[in-house]
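Late entry, written up from scratch paper. The run itself happened at the end of the previous shift, but nothing got recorded in the book at the time, so transcribing now.
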Amino acid sequence: MGEKTHDLLARLAGRAEDDSAAAWQSVAATEPEAANPADTPEDPRLEELLRAIRSLAGPADTAAPRAAEAVCIPSRAGEADGKSRPGATPAAKAPTSNAFVPQEPESLAAAGLTEGEIEALALKYLLSIGNATGRAVAEQVKLPFRLVHGLLQDLKSRQLVVYRGASAANDYEYQLTDLGRERARRFSDHCTYFGSAPVSLRDYIASVAAQSLTQQHPTLDDLRRAFEDLLLSPRMLSRLGPAINSGRGLFLYGAPGNGKSSIAERITRAFGEAIWIPRALGVDGDVIRLYDPANHEELPLEGHEGLLDDRRIDRRWIRIRRPTIIVGGELTMEQLEVTLNSATGICEAPLQLKSNCGTLVIDDFGRQRMSTDELLNRWIVPLEKRFDFLNLPSGKKIQVPFDQLIVFSTNLEPRDLVDDAFLRRIPYKISVADPTEEEFRELFRVMCPKLGFEYCERAVDYLIQTHYRKVERPFRCCHPRDLLLQIRNFCHFHNQPLELSEEYFDFAVENYFAVM
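Output as recorded:
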């Protein structure tokens, strides 16, 4: 028995006798003969499964990654040399309306982050919630678990956290120690923020350049689609088109009630629908919250079909509808600067930063709490240079993009509000004139079915002849809707059927134009 064992070990060590080599070759594994494809029955489901496996493994040639480089922007501006990161999967499947898709970082350095920043976020999160798994911490800071797992292990070795229990998929539930709790409190005294890991200013500037309005060139069809629910004359569309294409400043002025605000609110629809913005920006230790649910509408990606999501999108960014931010008489100078919440230590981005790659509408311009001269002095350089300077609470001054279509909507004459230097930087001034009589009638035809009425030509003729021509009252685009609402409310109150009549129009006009 011992001799056989010694002989087997000798053979495994390569010192076997030559005469026994044939015996080993007889039992050695042989390569299977390749099956002839013609002899293999075709199975569509099998072929589909094989294609999915090949797509996960990556293409054999480099043509596909090169084609997808346009949609995978690096996490650091230093990588913007056209080369994708090793092992990165192109995000070409992400359904976006532009070529910018933030790609998941391969390391903290590629994300522009330090271990200290993630440590502070993780400890403050555990201080707030009590205990959490490693994957919950990674989800909170919006980073891949593989980047957070090693950091949590380091925190444990430094006795800042302990295992509270085991979790699924090689994970643990973490809890702060007394030492970790004290360290987390010191972090919270400086800033209570423990949300998504911030994006560097350099990456944000690159994203604005990639999604800029100046790279979009809406056509007449795009404008018709954007204003499909408004009745605009071809002449108005032809004047709005070049102004919107410029991506710069625009003055809309004219009498009240002709739809200046409605036009301004819909301009963004002519551009691409979605953009990506960071949830928060990080600048030398200051956290600036950029994503604002009050002004931004999230457009989440469609659910991925399959076991693995190969899009690998950086979750620190959020996909939103191109912003349209509207401010009126409540606008103050403080809203145009970075504001610090002294209680939380979190900075809030100004309105012009939140509206980048979208539209910022200054409604009722000239009626703000601050004077037009203050706004002129604040924005005269950004309107010309397309960038702005912001002062941070730490005293640092940063340069940020000023990349939005500024729309000033006013009932006043622009020349009476600002001087020529400011008007020169607003290249387009468009008057929103009163509708013609035919357009006025068309507005009634459009609004009647929407409000439950049947259009009556005779009643509208009476209205125009009696209450407009005779008293020389100008037509306004808002009048058909407002008068029909007056009649509808009257009919509902008296339990009468909805209809247009001379009597009802007399009642509506008496109420609506009592002091006008």
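Residues 8-41, 57-98 have pLDDT under 50 and may be disordered.
(Scratch paper discarded after transcription.)
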